Amino acid sequence: MNNDIPVQDIGPQGEVMAHAVDACVHCGFCLPACPTYAVLGDEMDSPRGRIVLMKEVLEGALPLADAAPHLDRCLGCQACVTACPSGVPYGELITSFRGWSEPQRERSPLARAGRAAILKILPAPRVFSLAARAGQYAKPLAPLLPAALRAPLDLLPEHVPAMQPNPEVTPARGKRRGRVAFLAGCAQQALTPNFNAATLRVLARNGIEVVIPEGQGCCGAAALHTGAREEALRLVRQNLAAFNPDDYDAILSNAAGCGAGLKEYPVVLHGLPDEAQARAFAAKVQDISEFLAGLLREGELEPCLPTARPLTIAYHDACHLAHAQGVRAAPRELLRAIPGVTVLEVPEGDLCCGSAGTYNLEQPELANELGVRKARNILSTTPDLIASGNIGCHTQIQSHVRRQGSRVPVLHTVEVLDLAYRGEL
Amino acid sequence: MTPRKTALSPGSPAPKPRSNGKPDNALAAELTRLLGPQKVLSNLSERLNYRYDAIQFGATPLAVVLPESTADVVTAVRAARAAGVPVVGRGAASGLSGGAAPALPGLVISFTRMTRLDIFPERREARAQAGVVTLAVTDKARPFGLIYPPDPASFRTSTIGGNLGENAGGPLCFKYGVSGDYVRGLEFVDAEGEVHELGRDAYDLAGLLIGSEGTLGLITEATLRLTPPPRFTRTLMASFAEVGACAEAVSAAIAAGAVPGKLEFMDQACTNAVEDYLHLGLPREAGAVLLVDTDGDDLDTVEEERALVEAACLAAGGTVRRAASDAESAALWQARRSVSPALGRIRPQRMNEDIVVPRSVLPDVVREIRALGDASGFHVVQFGHIGDGNLHPNILFDPRRESPEAVHDLAHRIALVAIRHGGVLSGEHGIGTMKRPFMREAVDPVTLSALWDVKRALDPAGALNPGKVLPEEE
Question: Is A52 in contact with B49 (Cβ distance < 8 A)?
C-alpha cells in the first residue's frame, strides 16, 4: 500500500514498518483469520484495518490516541500472517509499532504502574510464584473485585505447585546424540513446573544433554509486545550473552510464545550492531516439538510404550507455534507416534484462544469471549485429553474447559510423551 | 504444508464497537441520534478504514453505518438523502475495481452485520442477507446435500451483497455460471429509501441490479438457488513453455467436447508469487500453468473428460500431472485462489484488468498482451478463467518509481486488444473506477445513453455510488 512514512525520522524500526505497509495490498484475505474481526466484525479491528491505522499514525495523519484502542485489541496471534498471500510481515509491524508508540502513549499513573508491575512480575518466576500463591487465597473474593483484578485471579489454576529448581546440566541417558541449551521460561516455572521437568526427562531419555545457562533471563517477548522496547532490548542482549549458539546443536524452548520471541531477535535488533549475532542465535532456536520430531523423522526417537487403552487427544495449535513459527506438523507427529493415540482436529482450530501474553489482563472481555469459544470447540470433539505447547493457552483452555464443567486433563505435548515413556498414559 | 483457513461470519454476541466521544459532523450526529452509537461509526480512525477496497483508496466517508436490518438501511439512506450526500454500499471490500471505494465524501453503508441466513432444502434455496460471507452459504447448505456454486477467489471473505453488486464469478463459472445466475429474487432499498422485493419475471429488474455496483440500489437480501454438488471431481495440472500454447490447449479441449467444471490458468510470474507463499512444488520454470477440474455424477464421463483435456494439453506441447488425492486438488485450487493478492510480493500496486474475449481468439489475445507487456518495461502478468475467455492481465508497478500515466496508457492498450477481438471490459470484477475511462470505446454512444437513462430513472439525484461504471455524459 502506498505510504509516506518518514522512515528517516524513525530509524531502522521505521524501515521494518514501512516495508510491511508497502507489502499490504488490502485484499481482505486476512479478515476471516482474525479473532477480533470474528468477534467484532468491523474493519478497524481487522489486520487490514490496523495496518491502515498504523500507516496513518506513522504518517502523522491520525492521532495515536484515536488508533490505539483498535491496535490494543490485536492479540498478536499472527493468524493473518498465515492467511496473507502477499507476505505482509504483520507481526514485525505491530511489534515495532508498539515499541515506537509506547513512549508517546498517555496513560494514567495507575495504568502505568499496573503495566510496570506485570512486566516486573511475569519474568521473575519466584516473585510470580509468590504472587500466584497470594492470588490463590484471594480467589474466593474474586466476585467482589473490579474486572481488572478479577481477570488474573480467574486464570489461576486451583493449585499453584511448589517451584522446582533448574539443574544447570541434565546428562544424556544411554547413547549420547547431542547437546542443547534450554530456555527455562518464566510464568510456567511458577504455574506448571512439570513442563520443564518433563522436557528434561524426555530429552535425557533420547540421549540429549541439556544445559540451562545460568545467565539467561526472560525471552523479552512480553516486554516487546507491550511496547517496552528498552526493557526488551536489555533482556534480548542478556540472553545473547548467556547462550553461545556455537556451543549447542540447538537452543530449545517449550513455550510457543517464548520460542517465537527468541526467533524474533533479528527483527528486534534490525539495524543495530548486534543484528548478526541475533541471526546466528535465532538460526539455532527450535521449539521442543520441532527438535523431537526431527529425531522421530530420522528414526532416532526412543519408542513410547503403548497407551493402556485407545486414547483420543485434541491438539490445540498455539498461535505462536502454528502462525508465528509455522510449527503444525511436528507436535501432531509426536503424539501420533505414541501407539494407541488418535489426534483430533479442533473446529475453528486456527482461531486464537484469547490468552496471548498479557491480553487476558488488558482485554478481559474479548479474551473471555474467545476462551469460551475455544473451549466449546475443543470439547465438541469429546477428547480423552487436550494437548498444546504453550503455557498461556494451557492456562486459558484449562480455566475455560473447567468452567464448562469438563474435567478432561490439559497437558503440554511433552508431558504426554513423558507419560507415554513411563507407561502411564 | 498448506495453511488452513477459518471461514467465519462475524456477529457473535460480543460487545459491538461504538464510536467514542462526539460524532465528528452533522450527518454522523443525525445518524447516531436515529440509529444509536453502536450502529454508526463517526471518528476519524473509524471512517479512514471505510474508504478502500482491494484495489484502491477513495475519499474518507463522513459517516459509516453498520445496519442490522433493512429498516436500518432505509433510515440511513433517507438521512443521507436529506443531507444531500452520496451513499456507497460495501460488503467485505475485497472487490477489484474500486467499486466500494467512495469517489466522494458521503455515507458508507457496510453490510457485515446483516448476516441472517436460512436454508430451504425442499425448495433448494437460501435466503441470505447482504452481509452473509459467500462460503457460509455452502457451509450451511452442505448438510442438506446442497451447495452454492459461485466461488470468487475471495469467497472466505466476500459477502453475498458485494458478489451480487459486482456479479462476481469464480473458477466454477465455466460450467456453473456467475453469481447472477443463482439469484431467484432480491430485496433492495432504492435511492429514496423505499424497499422493493423483486423476482425474475416481467421486467428483470433484479438482473439490472446485479452487477450495477450499487449505482442503482442497495441489495439487502437475496433468494439464492442451491444445487447438489457433483459426485465426482478430478483435477489435473498442465504446464506449458508459453502462455499461447496453454490457450491453444484450452480451445482444443473445449472444441473436442469437454465441459470441465473449472479451467484456470496462471502465467509464470503468478505461479512464482504463489509458490513463494504456499511452497507446493508448482513448476516455477513453466511459462503457463493450467488447472482443470472435470466433474459430474458419472465417474466414467468425468474421467473421459479429463482424458480429453489431457490429450489436448499434450498435443499443445504441455506436461500433465494428475492430482493424486483430494488434498492435492485442494492445495492446487488454493494456489489459484491466492494469485491475485500474492502478486503484491512482486510490486506494491497493480492495475487490474478483467477482459473477456471469445475462446477462439484466446491464443492470439494472450500472446498480444504478453508482447505488449514485454515491450512496456512493466511487469505484466496474466491469469484467469480461461475457459470463459475471462482474462486478468495485471500491470504491477511501484508508484514511487513508475509513472501512473504510463500504467494507465498500457492498461488502455490492453483493453483495446480485447475490444478489437470482439471482447468486453469486465467479466466479474465490475467496471468501478478502474475501467470506467475505457467504457466509451467498449460501448457505443446510443447504448451508453440508454444506460444513463436507466441510471437517471432509478437514481435521479445521482446519489448512489457516484463516479462508478458510467463515464460522465458529454
Answer: yes
